[in-house]
Amino acid sequence: MDLNSPIPISMLDLEIVLRLGVAAVLGLVVGFDREWRGHAAGMRTHGLVCVAAAGMAVSVMALYNQLDAPRVDPLRMFEAAAGFIGIVGAGLIVFSRGKVHNLTTAAHLWLATVIGLACGLGQWPLVLVLGITSLIMISVMRMVEKGLGHKDRTLDE
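Structure (tokenized):
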């Protein structure tokens, strides 16, 4: 069996640590709201999803660049991530007593996946915009909803 050449541990550099580290931290930050509200998919889940997506992106791009094969399509990474997180999200969403629950948590996990992929691919402007936008949507929008008279739900939206 022919395998790709192994990448020696000495090739570990600051850029890989930065990409995975930022993904882990942002995943934890995005998951904080869910954790604070007592939902099952909290900081650890979001952090793991985000850093796993970043690791997948780094691995796929490294392999793509190493193999230099015309039939290799790194965009399949997005298909795999979307399929996986779609299954997880669908499993979270529950329709009970005429209301939908866990929709926001599923969306949070999708966001963590996209942030992780962007971190893994080193798309720092996208990471910055996603990070800031997600914090605004998570925190500021909750205050806006309260100002409009929406009660804070004990169950997920």
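The radius of gyration is 18 Å. Strands lie at 94-96, 99-101.
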